[in-house]
Amino acid sequence: MGLKLFSSRVKFDRHEWAGSFGDIGTDFPLITGMILASGLDVCSVCVMFGVMQIVMGFIYGLPMPIQPLKAMAVIVITQKLSPDILYGGGLAIGVVMLVLSVSGLINWIARIIPKCVIRGIQFGLGMQLSTLALKDYVQSDGISGYGLALLSFLIIIFLLGNRKCPPALLVILLGFIYAFVFKINPDAFANSIGFNLPHFHVPTPGDILTGLLILALPQLPLSIGNSVLATKQVVADYFPERSLSVRKISLTYSLMNLIKPFFSGIPVCHGSGGIAGHYTFGARTGGSVVLYGLLYLLVGLFFSTGFDTVIQLFPKPMLGVILMFEGIALMRLIQDIKEIKKELVIALMVGLMAVSLPYGYVVGLLVGTILNYLTQKAVIKLGE
Question: Which residue segment(s) compose the domain that 326 sits in?
């Protein structure tokens, strides 16, 4: 009985293999950007990222991948912050999320934020991912990149949902071929192989405080809205038979970030976009997340010495197409409230705020929640 339950929660068939690449368009560029901007240790970053993916795949038995903390990543990349501050920020947000989990505050937050606001956050994130894919990734390699993006797009359009031939595997293979034709010297790739292990690190109180103020506080609203609340909602959408609490999601979020800084790993979260990406390309169990983690584990242990060469295996135009479909999958979730005009308007407004305003996610979260309750009260008074 136990073995049967395990096999239903973690599979390694072709659909899980295909789904395992569903979130790479979001993760890989952010990880690469942080490594290059702050001089992070490639082995430590990739190994710890991979290990946590594998652990979460087995814990949840769902395509519940982890992602870099997006607000933190943007700040680190644009300001080129030191690794020590990044590790301090990761530990700080881990402590904050632990307090929210243990105290039960996260459950209270989940109760007061309505579903239409969560749909708005997902819609906004979907717009951001799709826009990033089209404006940055697809255009990055000129004419040859446009050709790769077009072929990738056509493969996905014709094969999306095909249970015999999942499209993501063909797209990744196409990207590898493109890389060796236009980007990679085979000899240089062979010379990039070498064995490495992560580095141990102890964050100082000063780095933790600085990381809290500069990185953790700007990240917190997005983490609560997307990493916890929207993640719970998207699991309910795709796996209605599975009961998953916000407390468990926030607790595993916290524990990952309490461990990773001590091994020079980047701060991470769960995310509704990650689940949508894995699910869209075929994943239905934790197997896709385990396989995805093994990819990073392999890169960290054996290819971190030649990381500049290895990253060329995943051309940005190809990643952009995968990212665009992940964004579209998130935006489509708004369909279940389209018949309720009040909620649809609030969701669209929250989504637009999220992508167009400074600190848009926290503004949308607060304004959308307040408007929802005000309109509810107005309806009640009219009814009286």
Answer: 2-335
